[in-house]
Each structure stands twice: as structure tokens, then as C-alpha cells.
């Protein structure tokens, strides 16, 4: 890495304190400078706007469907009609499809990964900036298809598109499959880019085992994205052909096999679960180290467990079909499923051990990682129920499953995402947020989430099937509590949004390093300049935070290079 | 994946030599070249997995409905398939030669080889077109338009079906005039009875009744003693009926000359699936050939303008990788679809 | 009364256990539950303890703690590994028992279609409610005529997908007399949540009497009554209202004798032949404004039942003022208990 003075920016004065002058946000102006940008940070921001919009939309469907269920508890107010059932089926399908394909999968890699990954590597950009931009446009095109679906009859297949229902319903299945197909391309391009970037653009002095754990997690995620998504692509293409041409591969009425679709679908969609959770785990590793202000415990175990999860994740898709397939297949899938539990457990234990003898700050990002550990533990332990064959026969397709995967997908992934957003927010925008509002929002989200889903575990164990627009009277109490919980959760999320907007408009100026982290993104200004680093950053152990001293006047940390070099020398002995 | 728009910035930078084709975020041409190559390899992995899904679908249907596939092969023309294999292999050779020319900086040879490769793609697509045309002439389309398409247990196009049977039976019996094809629709009924219970027969509840229900009715004749069925053979009939229905058709001994009347009633209803899979596989591959041709046209244009040199030939190298993959996939498709009996 | 009895030993998490395999399931469930509670309390407890004990004193703290220990890593990897392997074996053994019907189980054919259940017993007796004798192994052959459904009875702890084009099997042995809910657990479209029926577990004598009655249930009844029962039991009512409101399908009142307009533009007077056609071949004439979603009832409905439906439609139509048919005659059972078809 050579020292490059940015000749364009040299001498340009602006309100920013860093010597380069401008930052990546005000580096150039005009809509085209954004729409045609090759800067990973700007692409990350554009992703952020669109992904959060998708989150708002998909989340609204969640609140809407919970409201419908609440009304069902008072049948006089909302009598059950075919129309109201259709509405419910549309709501849960769109909720799932939009949030899975347009929020959970892209959220961490496309927003935080794009923004932070090159910074963490001390690089100027990802390996293929144009593909990166293309990936955003694929995302937009996929989103366009989903918007078309919304306006043209909706979708009522569930996000899983199970055949033969999906080949026979008269909603916009073809457009939705094309949308998911194009979104898959976006995901593949991001993954491919990250793999090449991590392989090729690591700075001198940063071997694989000096990488921040977030990068290990992103790397493992990218491998899954690249290897699993094409199978989804072909599955969706075949489904599209099924809809348009009636080829018959998945349609029993034409001689096809609907269970084959399930195998194809879950071959992607189970690894996709790890696309969602692995980067979240990566964020938690970063937060744990920074807010405990010490070296992470068991670095290599955390790193390797990411890879182990990614690989084993490819071999467990069959556990979605315990109620369909043969006993032998079930036994094999069940066994491998249990073995995935182990690397996940290892991560949790290592995070706990990192807290041991740390200096724990309860800043908002850390609160989110504590919430993550609580919810991920619940999600993981209920996964043990579902991995077990006899228990899954009972719990399959009940709200127990709904509560389980929401604990992992929403509870864990969302809390990690929010924690990461708060953590890197000052870096991304150069503004601080209101800590009190952030903590209140965290509390509401935590309480709301637990309220919403704990009762669904109970209802599911009692036999409440999922995807039911209606329910028997004995389940009314669970649905009422769950709906109230979802409102609390929604209020908390809106408070987060308010806080972020407020921060953008009126936030206090952020220091370069408000938390004292030592990964390379904290070695550049907040927000970073156009090409990320004015000076070559000092590459050392990623979690060696003791070279940073707190400076009260800026409410942030200042790097002490001499001490860093000294610590680095000690570290090598 | 070079990004030229920043190059002027770096031209002024005296620290190190930054060639025109080197993107701003790479340090050295080698790093850029290696990155591009790695990216393409990863992309090829995704392609292989995508086709892998199709190969799986192929394998499963072939395993379950062997006779259907053996019958369907009859419609395919080995000669055209083999010719296309040769064409693609030759174009891969010219591509490799082109890459070598690029590495050595032989501009004219490079352009010539790229054009030759492109022409290989054109040839392949033309032959594919001729083949598709042959199928369409006999109404062998994918999906609902296929002559073998059945709807609700009935042939959708009895006339076209008859014609298509004549065509394939004629080919399967070694070019002789349609042997058993003429009375096919009648024969189909009789084979229905001769084989036990079949998959799609029992899909619809109505057609299930003639076979399944009597067996069930007969099973525990005396309800008051609810115990193992009095008549084990009837129970056995039901079980075997169910087993067969679950497993799909029983593969018969492999013989290459399968005629329409050799297929069971349920298998006859699945012949259109063979064409569905054939068109999906070759269609998706054809699409990849087209994309490859666009890529090569772009490379030819750049080569023609003299943008490649001994120091900068990465796009040719990487584009070549893609073309070889397209070739490789065909090397698998050809025997699977045309040769294996 | 039966329903209340059936709910007697419901726990906070689980519904009452009413089949022979339920005990095995519940034992494992409770084991995993308590194991989970212990782990959760342990992890959360440690977390809270660390947060308090190691809270940040100064932003310039330079804490130094252990950073790696292979012994500790192995120490906390092995216990969960052993634990999950125990759970795997336990769950697998339970599953095998749930999966393997004992020899000689009494067989019932379960036919699922959007959005009804139909159960066919040994001699073709049919019903929309599943009746089974208590303490008797029942084996189920599951078939679907349209999309994937799933057969689910929480009290029995069983679930099995009903896949079109396949014959899936499952079994159970109910241990107590009572009525239990039978759900469709695989999403199957608009009225998925209405696809609920009952399993009636009764004594062997009651079950035999029930079968006897089902075999010729229409005898002695007026065709209108038979038609109304078919409408109710065979699931017609899910889509066809008789109260002047179109649902997923057209309403039934005032249909008979009226002119029907079809999606393809043709028309036809709704006479006896038309009704019969619509039941057996519903895709033939799709009424304008509706989708072709109705499954055929061919092989699932008997002639007297079709006659009943026709008479029922006549009885609720203002367009019909003729004479309704007399009640179906009662046949005398044959000496050997009757052979299939003797009643028809």
C-alpha cells in the first residue's frame, strides 16, 4: 500500500477537519454522481436507502397481518370471508418474500459489508467496483418486479413457492420468481466481489488470521451466496417455465414431482439462512471486542466455526421435509443438523468468554449484542427441538417454527444489524446519534420481540398451525399477546428510524473513532474520504485496542502510534 | 474490470508507474489480473452449480422414468449433436489459440482467432436452430404445446400425438415406417390395463377409484375383528400398488428400441417431460452461447482497435475461460441427451 | 362433554397426550425443554454477571484477559456435542415408532383436496369426519387431488404431508375416547385455515355402529336432507353458500332452473344433468366470474348422494315448483353383513 495524495482533493477546503478536505459524501455532486458511482461506500449508502425501504414495506405487512389476527379474536368485528382470508394470505406471503429476498439477505453484506469491508482491508475499493454497481441495479430491478407483483394481483404462495400450489394459483407467481431470480444475481455479484476482494486486496501485514472476524463471516457468507444462489436461480427458472409453459417437472398432474421442488428450494434456502445469520455473527464479534475493549477470546475458533457453519449448512436442507421424505433421509439430515448446532454454540461461548475480565461498556451497539446473545440462544435451543425428528413431526408447520426462525432471522439478525448500524453510523455519516433515544428504542425492541414470539412458541407447541388466517378459540389469547408485542416492536423500530434521521439532520459531529476500535476503518476520518485513506493505515492485530487513548475534548479515541508499534512488537514475542 | 475513468488522477502520481488499464484501486497489473481471473473462476463455479441443478433434475427423471427417456431420445438427431460438439470444440481451440496470440502480442492473429471463435458460436446456434426446427415440425415443443401433452388424463392433441408417435417410432425402429404407431391411441388403453397402478393414474382421485378402492374395500372384510386382513393377497395388491405409485415406474430392461406401445399408460403421459427437460437444458445452454458470443464480439472489437498487448490481455484470457465453460457444459449435455442408452 | 374431558391434562406447553407415541414425544420434549432452560439461564446469567462485574470503569481501561485456550474450547464443545447426539438418537427412535405402523393396523384412506378432508373406510363408507375405534392401531394412506396438504392431529403428536401423486402413510393408536381437532398443516391456499375437521375416537362398538350407519346413511332419508348433509359434510359449503352470497364458488340458492353464463361465453340451463356435470366434471362449465378451482368428486360421491344434491338444489330454488323425490328406500342387510354394492 503506497501513500497516495489525492491530487483532485488536495487543497480543497471544506468543513471537514481531515487534511484531504472532502469526504466521500460531498466528493462530487448531482444525482448522476450517485447513480453511476463506483465508490463502494456510496453503493453501500444507496443499498441502505433501498433495503431500509424494503424493510419498512415488509415490516408493515407483518404489522398488518398481526392486526388481522387480532381482529379474528373478535369475529363480530371482522367476519371471516374469502376476501379476508385472501388478504391474510397475501400479507404473510409478501411479508416473507420481501423481507427474505430484499431485506435479510442483502442487509448486512450489501449495506455494512459494502461500506466497511474495503475499509477494514485498508483498500480503496472492492475488487470489481462496476460489478458492485451492477449488483445494486440488479437489486433495484428485482425490487421493481416485486413492486409489479404488489400492483398486479399480489402473491399468495408463501415465500417458499411450494409447487403445485404455486403453479396453480392465479396470483403473480411468474413476476415474483423473476424478481427473486434477479435479486439472486445481485446477491451472487456481491458475494463474488467480496471473495475476490478478501483474497486479493488484503494489505501487507494482514494475513488470513489477522483479519477482523467480520471479514471471516462475510467471506463464509460470500461462499454460500456464490454456491447456493445458482441453485435457487435454476429452481426459479424451472418454476417460471412451469408457470408459463407447463413443462411439468414439478407438477404432479403432469407427471412431475413436487417434492423435488422442495429439495431444490431448500438446497438454496437453508444455506440462505446462514447467509442471513453469519454476517450478523461477524458483527457481534466486532462489537464484543470493541465494547469489552479487549482481544476477542478464541479468534480462530470463531473464524473456523464460520467456515464450518457455511460448509455444514449445505448438507442440512432436508430437515425442512421431515414430514415428507423417507425415514433414512430424515435420520441423516437430522444428524447433520445437530452437528451444525455445535459451531454456533462455540461462538456464543467465545463471546461470553470475551466479556470475562473485559471492560464492558453498555453503549447502544453493545446492548444490541447482548440482546443478540439472548435471542440467538433461544433461537438455537428451539432449533434443537426442531432438529430432533420426533419433536419436529409435531412442531413442523406450527407457529413454533415461526417463532424459532424469527428468533434467528429477526431476533438475532435484526439486532445484530441494528447494533452494527449504530456502531458504524458515526463512520458512515460523521454524525453521532442520541444515545438515550437509542437505548429506549432498544428496550422497546427487546421487549416487543420477546412478547411477540414467546407466546408463539407456546401456541405452536399446543398445535397452532402456521399460515392460518383464522384460529380456534383456544388460541386467541396467544394471538392477542403476540399482536400487542408486534406493536411494541414496531414502535421501537420507528424510534430507531427517527433517531437516525434526527442524527443526520442535527447529530453531533462524530470523532474519527468514538468507540476505540482498532480495525482499519477507525484509522480513517469519519466519514472517510473518497478513496478511503489519506495515509496508509497502521496494520496490526485487529483487536489490539490499547494503543487508542480516550480524549475527552472530542469524546473519542486518538491513536498512539508509538505505543501501537511497541504492542505489536510484544505481540510477536 | 478495469476502471479507466480515474486514470488521469493517477497519471499525475509520481510514486509508481500506474498503467492506463490499471484500475485505481489495484496496486499492480498482476494483482488486477489475478483478481479478474479469480472472479471469473468463482463465477464459473456459480454457472456449474446452476447447470448442476438441471443435471440433477435430469438424473432424477431419467432414473425414475427410464423408458420415457429411452423413447424420447428417438426424436434427437445424433448427427447434428455430434457436429455441434465438433464445432464447439473447434471454437474452444481457436479461443485458446487467440489467448496465446494475445499473450504474445500478435494482434492480427488474435483478431482472426476471435472471429473464428465467434463464427463457431454462430455455427453452433444455426445447427441448434435446425434441430429445434425439426422438433417443432413434429409439434415437439416444451410444455403445453407438446404433441405428447396430456390434460386430465387425455391427450390434448390426439392428431398431433399420432403424428409424433409415428415420427419417433419410425426412428426408434431403425428408420422403418411407423410400425406400432398407427394404432397408438388404442394401444394406450390396453397397456393401461396390463400394468398395475401407475403414478399419474392415481393422482386424480377419480382414476384412482378403479384400482385402489376395490383393493381397499376388499381388505379387512370383517370389520368387527379389526386385525390383519383376512385376505393377505388383497392387502398385498394394495401395498404393491401403493409402492409402485410412490416409486414411479419400474424401469424395464434397457433396450434401445423402445416403441410407443412399450411404454405403460402412465409413462406415455410423461413423454412430454423429456422434451421439457431437453429444451430447458439446451435452451439455457444456448443462452450461454449467445452471451459468450456477445462477449467475444466485444473482445474482437477491442482487439481490432489494438487495445490488447503483451502487458494487457486479461479480458481475452478471462473471456476465454467463460467460453471454455460453455463448451464444457455442452460436452456433458451431448452424451446425456443424445448418446446414453 | 367429550371435548372438555379431552382437554383434561393439557400442560402449559403441550396439548393432552392421546396416542401411544405421545408419551415418547413428550418425554423428549420435556427433556429438551429443561435442558434449554438450564442453558439459557446459564448463558444469560453469566452475561448479566459479567456486565455488572466487569463494567467499564474508565474509557481508558486496558483490560487483559485470556485470549485462547484449546482446553477450554474442547471443554465447552464436548458436552453440547454429547447432549445433541443423545437427543438425536432419542428423537430418531421416537420417529421410527411414529413412522412404522404395527402389522394389521386398520386402514383408512385419507383424501385431501382444497379445502376438505374425506375419509374412506374398509367397504367404501365415507365421511368428512374421521371416526376411529379406541386402542386400535389405525394406518392412514394419504392422498391429495390438488396441492400439498398435511395431516395433523396435535393430541396424537402426528403429522404427515399429503402430496399429490404420492401415497404417504402414517399411523396412530388413540388411547382415549374423545374428539380431537385435525388440522391441515401445509399451506394450501385461500381456506387453509378452515381445513379443520374432527377425529372422533369411540369405543369399538360405537365405531362398528357408525360404520354400519355410514354404509347406507342415506336410506330412509329424504333426498333433500341427504343433499344438505352432503353439502355440509363433503365440504361444498366451504365455497358454496346457500344464503344468497357468492363465495369462492357460486351460491347455490336459486341456481336450479336458472340460466348459467360461463366463462367461455356459452350458457346453459341448470338442470339435473348440469348439476351432475358440475359435480363430476367441474372444469367443463366454469361460471363467469369464478375460477376453475373446484376438484372433481368423481369416485368420491355415490349416485344417491348426487341425487340428494340435485333435490336439495331444487328445494332452495325459486325456479323450481315441481315435486321433490320420495325418501330413499331402506334395504334389509344381507346375512353375511353385507357385501359392497348390496346397498346400492
What does this protein look like?
The complex is a heterotrimer of chains A (573), B (341) and C (344). The model of chain A is unreliable at 1-19 (pLDDT under 50). Chain A has 16 helices and two strands. Chain A has helices at residues 31-35, 40-72, 82-120, 129-151, 165-168, 173-200, 213-245, 258-292, 299-312, 327-355, 364-387, 389-395, 399-429, 435-462, 476-506, 561-572, and strands at residues 548-551, 556-559. Helices cover 66% and strands 1% of the residues of chain A. By secondary structure, chain A is mainly α. Chain B has 341 residues and is mostly helical. Chain B contains 13 helices and two strands; from the N terminus they run αααααββαααααααα. In chain B, a hairpin with a 2-residue loop joins strand 1 and strand 2. The longest helix of chain B is centred in the first third of the chain and has 36 residues, at 29-64. Chain C is α+β, with helices and mostly antiparallel strands and 344 residues long. Chain C folds into three domains: 12-54 and 68-99, Helix Hairpins, CATH 1.10.287; 106-215, Cupredoxins -  blue copper proteins (Immunoglobulin-like, Sandwich); 223-315, Cytochrome c-like domain (Cytochrome Bc1 Complex, Chain D, domain 2). In chain C, 33% of the residues lie in helices and 18% in strands. In chain C, helix 2 packs antiparallel against helix 3, helix 5 (223-233) packs across helix 7 and helix 6 (272-280) packs across helix 7. In chain C, 43% of the residues are buried. Residues 334-344 of chain C have low confidence and may be disordered. The chains are: A mainly alpha (573), B mainly alpha (341), C alpha+beta (344).
